[in-house]
Automatic annotation (TrEMBL):
GO molecular function, one term: nucleic acid binding
GO BP, one annotated term: regulation of cilium assembly
Residue spans of biased composition, Polar residues class: 27-37
The protein, known as: Outer dense fiber protein 2
Coiled coil, from the record: 113-190, 434-468
Top-level division of the source organism's lineage: Eukaryota
Keywords annotated in UniProt: Cell projection, Cilium, Coiled coil, Cytoplasm, Cytoskeleton, Developmental protein, Differentiation, Flagellum, Microtubule, Spermatogenesis
Family: Belongs to the ODF2 family.
Length: 805
């Protein structure tokens, strides 16, 4: 069995002569009832669903007449009472709205909020201008870096040109070395030829030596013969022959001595020449050895030059890669700056949003405190009303003897009821406001969840950016260390080349001295020595050239050292600038975690405040439902008392003792939001719409009469009546006491029958009336509602008769 509606039922006890119009709203769809049940279980407040209701068809009245309406409308039902004739009021009281109760504090708070928003906008504009300045400075720094890179590239190109010149000079030296090699080969061939000539001279010398030995042997033989001749005695002829032979021999001896002397001189000269040739050959061998050493040294220099070329190419590639890295780092810095600016903008917007949320939460707390104070005041009023109702109950027991006292007390209770009705209106408005605040709380909770997700994303993005910065810094540091090591290696190689050039200078000076000595010695040699002198002159020329080249190399090496120092200084400056930029970026990124922590703390505070607000709203909703039920019960008690004040305390009405059609009618009138099963539980009968109509026909309950056509001035109002107990109302349509309801029906009649509109069926007329009823102006309804509490109880006490009104 489904539960009953949360709104209290209405029990109205009036006399049979009072015509009553009861408009029952249609029940909600079955699909929405479980949702209502869950919402009630959770204690959340939701606005009442606006359902298009079908009210019984009522013929239109006369043209609209001003003021006086007796109507009460709840969340699920509405009550209208048609009072007797009376004069219409001259003034109407406008309804009190909750939106009109704005305080000066809220206005001041809104002004502060607008000021804060303006300040935030000005700060954002200043931040954007600062960002533009920072971007301009960064662009200038990028231009400076690009100019430095261009200068470095120009220096590298100059070094390449210098290397090309050095390679050309090396090629020239290689050609000269090849010429020297050819000339040395020629010299070797000539020395071989000279060695061949020396061999022939040695043969001649050996022959001469043999002839000399033979001559000496002949001389010794001649001396022996002379001694033998001296000892022997010769004749005159033999002595004359001997004298001739002696003279001839003496002549031969003279010639032999002269030839011997010349031969010895020649031998001495030949020995000296041979020694000199051997010494020259040794010098040639030494020169050839030195030439081979110089050629090997030149080959080593060529290899070193090739290595330097490779290193220069590697340095060029490194410079290109460094340029690419600098470009990528600049792009990364730009992306980091853009992300940082975006994150700062988001953080500022979130801070502004948090400030707005705190202001709204403060407003909610203030409103909740005001509502709490209002609820306390209402509870005090209810306690006073209960005490007053007890006092009035005792007074009414005593007032049963006097009609005058009963009328006065009924007037007092009518005033109190009007006050209660106004309080109930205020409670309903407060309930709607609480529901609106609760919906805003739900929206703020959704926004808070979105903020939490965005904060987590921002934290992850900041961590990724820091990791990328660290990786880029490590990579750049490693590359710079490698460049520094290569520069150190180049400097060591350049120092080694300097030492080698100095050694070459020393060797060159020694060679010059040796060449001078060889020139002084070779001036005494013949044609071969002259050739050697010409070769030595060419060597001198080449040595001079090599000396000039060595000087040029020395100057170029000094220039290369200066350029390397300049490049090293530029690289160190760039490294310091990059390190400084990275430190600045890290310093800028350091306050981000603190800002995130502050925002998280603010979010936790807002969550705690929202939870407290939800608890307060739950407490307010429970207190409002209790007050609504208590007010409904007090209203039903007062209406029962007004209906039968004498027999109220003596008898109790048992709804089960009523006949079936009376129970069905009572259930239909008291609570229109009940379903057929709920009515069946109350009446113990089948309460579907068809069975209700059948029971009403069987028991004499007359249907609503349809007046087709325009309503004249003597038309009567249709009401629900019981057969034999209540008569049709015979009040005139122009009755002053019917002005409030006639105002509504007159306006509806003018709208329904506008331009003499006619209806063929009752359903069409009912549909037109329902459409017109949904378009009734709220100002007219408020005017009618404000005039109802003032006169309803006078009409009830007069038994629907004329009132002083």
């Amino acid at each position: 069995m489904r539960t009953r509606s949360s709104s209290p039922p209405i029990h109205l006890h009036i006399s049979d002569s009072t015509p009553v119009h009861v408009h029952v709203k249609s029940q909600r769809s079955p699909a929405s009832q479980p949702q209502e049940k869950t919402n009630v279980d959770r204690g959340n407040l939701r606005p009442t669903a606006k359902v298009k209701t079908r009210v019984p068809w009522i013929p239109p009245g006369k043209a609209s007449i001003r003021d006086a309406s007796y109507k009460w409308e709840g969340p699920t039902h509405r009550l209208e009472i048609t009072p007797p004739l009376h004069e219409e009021p001259e003034h109407s009281q406008s309804a009190l709205r909750l939106a009109d109760l704005t305080s000066e504090e809220e206005e001041g708070l809104h002004g502060r909020i607008s000021q804060y928003e303006r300040k935030i906008e000005s700060l954002l504009s200043e931040v954007s201008s600062l960002k533009n300045e920072v971007e301009l400075r960064k662009k200038e720094q990028l231009l400076e870096r690009q100019s430095e890179q261009l200068s470095v590239s120009q220096r590298v190109m100059e070094q390449e040109e210098q290397l090309e010149e050095v390679s050309k000079e090396l090629q020239h030296t290689e050609r000269e070395n090849s010429r020297l090699r050819l000339s040395m080969e020629k010299m070797l061939e000539e020395s071989d030829y000279n060695r061949g000539d020396g061999g022939s001279l040695q043969q001649d010398r050996a022959a001469l030596h043999r002839t000399l030995m033979e001559a000496e042997g002949g001389g010794a033989a001649a001396a022996q013969e002379l001694s033998a001749l001296r000892d022997s005695r010769l004749s005159g002829s033999e002595s004359a022959g001997l004298a001739q032979q002696k003279e001839l021999l003496l002549q031969k001896l003279d010639t032999f001595e002269s030839t011997n002397r010349t031969l010895r001189l020649l031998l001495r000269e030949q020995h000296r020449v041979q020694m000199e040739s051997e010494r020259v050959s040794e010098q040639k061998d030494a020169f050839l050895k030195r030439l081979a050493d110089t050629e090997a040294h030149n080959a080593q220099l060529v290899v070193k030059l090739q290595e330097k070329d490779r290193e220069a190419n590697q340095l060029c590639r490194l410079l290109d890669s460094e340029k690419d890295n600098a470009k990528s780092s600049s792009d990364l810095s730009k992306s980091l700056e853009s992300t940082r600016a975006h994150l700062q903008g988001q953080l500022r917007s979130k801070e502004a949003e948090n400030n707005r949320l705190t202001v709204q939460i403060k407003n909610l707390e203030r409103a909740a405190s005001q509502q709490k104070v209002e609820m306390e005041r209402l509870t005090e009023q209810l306690g006073g009303l209960r005490r007053q109702a007890g006092a009035d109950r005792e007074a009414l027991k005593r007032a049963t003897r006097a009609q005058k006292q009963r009328a006065e007390r009924s007037e007092d209770t009518a005033g109190q009821l009007s006050v209660q009705l106004l309080d109930m209106k205020q409670l309903l408005e407060a309930l709607s406001a609480a529901e609106a605040w609760q919906s805003r709380h739900a929206q703020e909770e959704k926004d808070r969840s979105k903020l939490e997700v965005e904060l987590s994303l921002l934290n992850s993005h900041a961590a990724e950016l820091t990791e990328e910065l660290q990786s880029v810094g490590d990579k750049g540091r490693a590359e710079r260390e490698a460049l520094l090591e290569r520069l150190h290696a180049l400097t060591s190689q350049s120092t080694g080349a300097k030492l080698e050039t100095q050694a070459l200078k020393a060797t060159a000076s020694a060679v010059e001295e040796k060449l001078a000595l060889s020139q002084s010695e070779l001036q005494q040699v013949k044609a071969s020595i002259l050739q050697y002198e010409s070769l030595l002159d060419s060597y001198k020329i080449q040595v001079g050239k090599t000396r000039g080249e060595a000087d040029e190399y020395r100057a170029r090496l000094a220039q290369a050292e200066r350029q390397a120092q300049a490049v090293r200084g530029g690289l160190e400056q760039e490294l310091e600038e990059v390190r400084r930029e990275l430190l600045e970026r890290l310093a800028e990124l350091e306050p981000l975690p603190e800002a995130v922590r502050r925002s998280e703390l603010k979010l936790q505070e807002t969550q705690d405040r929202e939870r407290s607000q939800e608890r307060r709203s739950m407490e307010l909703s429970t207190t409002l439902t209790d007050l609504r039920m208590k007010a409904g019960r007090s209203k039903t008690l007062i209406l029962h008392f007004l209906k039968d004040p004498e027999g109220y305390w003596t008898k109790k009405v048992d709804p089960i003792k009523f006949p079936l059609h009376r129970r069905i009618l009572r259930a239909a009138v008291t609570d229109t939001g009940q379903s057929s099963t709920q009515m069946k539980a109350v009446t113990d009968a089948d309460c579907s719409p068809i069975t209700i109509k059948r029971h009403l026909r069987e028991k004499g309950l007359e249907n609503i009469k349809v007046f087709e056509g325009h309503v004249s001035s003597n038309a009567t109002l249709p009401v629900w009546t019981l057969q034999g107990s209540t008569k049709h109302g015979t009040l005139k349509a122009c009755s002053p006491d019917l002005n409030p309801i006639e105002n509504v029906w007159g306006w509806m009649a003018g709208e329904v029958y506008n331009n003499k509109r006619q209806f063929q069926t009752v359903d069409a007329l009912c549909e037109a009336i329902l459409i017109t009823w949904s378009n009734v102006p709220t100002s007219l309804m408020e005017t009618l509602a404000s005039s109802m509490p003032k006169h309803i109880f006078e009409v009830i006490d007069n038994n629907c008769g004329a009132t002083p009104y």
